[in-house]
Each structure stands twice: as C-alpha cells, then as structure tokens.
Amino acid sequence: MSRVALLSNPRSTGNRAILPRVRDYCALHPDIFHYEVEQVSQIGEAMRTIARIRPAVLVINGGDGTVQAVLTELHGGRHFGDAPPPVAVLPNGKTNLIALDLGAQGDPLRALERVVDLAKADLAPHIVQRELIALSHGAETSRPVLGMFLGGAGLADSILYCRHKLYPLGLPNGICHFLTAAAVLFSLLFGFRAGFLPPRPAPIRISLVRDGQISGRFTFLIVTTLEKLLLGGRVDAGHGHLKLMAIDQNPRALIRAIVAAVRGRLGRNRLEGVHVEQGDLIRIEGDRSNVILDGEIFQADTGRPIVLRTTPPVPFLKLAA
Predict the structure, then answer these.
(1) pLDDT tens-place string over residues 204-242
(2) Distances (CA, A) of 99 to 6, 46, 146, 148, 193
(3) Are strands 133-136 and 145-147 parallel, antiparallel or unpaired?
(4) pTM for this one?
(5) Residue 317 belongs to what H/E stretch?
(6) Helix, strand, coil percentages in the chain from 3-state DSSP, rounded to 5
C-alpha cells in the first residue's frame, strides 16, 4: 500500500528544475503514489483517484496556487469523507508561505524524503491543525475557495506589479521582490506616480463582525490563518481565527509597523495607522479592488463584497522538529 500520495504540478515554476529528480526518486520508492496534473480542472479527478488508495499523508508539490486548489477540492469534494489525510507541502513556487509555516524549506526533494521517513512511523506527533480561509462573495450556496494567506489593497497591487512587470524579465525571485519593495517605498515616501511604479491603492472598507469597520487606503492588507502575520506580527488567541493586519497608506504608519516588527512588538500595542485584528468573519468591499488568495486573484466590488470565513481545523504534517 502507498503510504504517501504525491500530487505534482509540472507547470509550477519551481518544478521546471526539480520535477525530473522527483520522478526519479518516486520510481525508486514504490510506497509513493505520484500523480501529476497540468490544469486546475484535473485536481478533482486526482483527488478521487488518490482517495482510493487511502494514503497516510497527501503531499503537494507546487506553488501556493496549486496548494489552494488542492485544499479547495479536498474540503469541498469530500473525497475522503470526514477523515482526510494530513497534508504536507513541499517548498516550491514563488512564495512558499504555507510550506514555511509547516516547517518545509530548502530543497523540495529533501522535504519529500523527510515526509517518507515520517510516514514509516506514527504520524500523530507531527500533525498540526490549521483553520483555512473560506473566500466567497457571500452566497451561502456558492462553493468557497480555500487558502491560508490573503493579500489585498497595496499588497495585492505590489504582488501583481512584481508578477507582471518583473518576473517576465527573468530576474531571480529575490531580486524581483527587492525591487518591488523599493518601488513601493519610493512611491509611498515621495508620492511619485508613474507607469513603471505600483499603482496607488484604491479605497476599501473592511468589516469585522462585532468589531466595526476600517476604511481607507492601505499600503498592506493581510488576512491569514497562519501562525505569524507578515512582518512577524502576532495577535492574541481567543477572538477568532482570521488574523488581519492593515497599514494605512502613509509613510509614518509603515515606519511604525516596521519598527514594532523589528522590536517584536507588532500586534501587542495599538499603533496609529496600524490595524491588527482577529475575527471569524471579515468582509472586504471596494471599487474593483483586487485581493489575492494563495496566488489566485479575486475582486471586491461595491455592493458585492468578498466574505472571509474560517473552516473547521484541517490536519497538516509539520516537517520541522
């Protein structure tokens, strides 16, 4: 019986180099069931097939967008009933936020070897529970899209700027991310606008049930169920599983957030222009304002807000000791 089911997306940027090694490794390990998909539409069939072999762990080898699509199908398709296998994520793609949260970093093949070793024994000590973000436009009958990290406002604009303006230049990912951050800081500090810089964030309104509204233009908007927010910020437990951080579109607010993050104080004290909140239901409304959930773009419109809820806990395999 295959203890490990591995689902790979050959079109993921990271797999262009690593996938041949992964295939060779799987050929030498018959306890790994390797399934490759090239389109999101194939993931449903992949889950149905994988469910038949009842693996001890499901491993995803792809970028954050692939992980999001698999989690959506795993939860919405209910191919494993009420007992889905724990999910492990190999460090791949452009950002690897989910993989990093689960302790996977470095060489994806080394991470796969670690999963195979863990699957030979009791997995229970290595399983952690994570709630997921369920994104919809509010209709109870619509099937939500699931993920673990959402970026909106200026952050979404910056991600799209990096994706469309810099990645096509063929520069290393790290350099692209640095240039994007520099462009954002330059336009924020000096108020300079040009076609080669990220656009100014559009106004949005964020509503947290029981906690009122936050409105304005934001340099960053982050909603996540991961343990840490971007910049290392944390929120106290007990007020919901959706963690939100928004930074007003002005230099002073950004500097306050960075200083607090460096000092390890972000989220512990109230800072003017820095909003760190937590809840179980968040609405985001704007005039064609983009948000990105684990790599996939969605749009919040006036009168048609994006609604974020949490799912019941989902088991994941944490690779770090």
Answers:
(1) 888 886 667 888 888 888 898 876 655 555 555 445 688
(2) 15, 21, 16, 11, 35
(3) antiparallel
(4) 0.78
(5) strand 314-317
(6) 35, 30, 35
